What does this fold into?
Amino acid sequence: MSVSAPPAAISELRERIARLEGGNARIRTVLPFGVAAIDRVLPGGGLAFGSLHEIAGGGNG
It folds into this structure.
């Protein structure tokens, strides 16, 4: 049986790792996509501000 860590714990670990690696430790602001299934898998829980995003539909065929 596998146990997954809660999203808050994962987020905290990512921030701690970034600080240890000497990367930019500032907390990034995100805009939630508004669909829980998508926000759950996006880094930070949404679309990062200050970034370019492309969203495309599946099309008709």
Remarks:
- Strands lie at 30-31, 47-48.
- The radius of gyration is 15 Å.
- Residues 7-20 form the longest helix (14 residues).
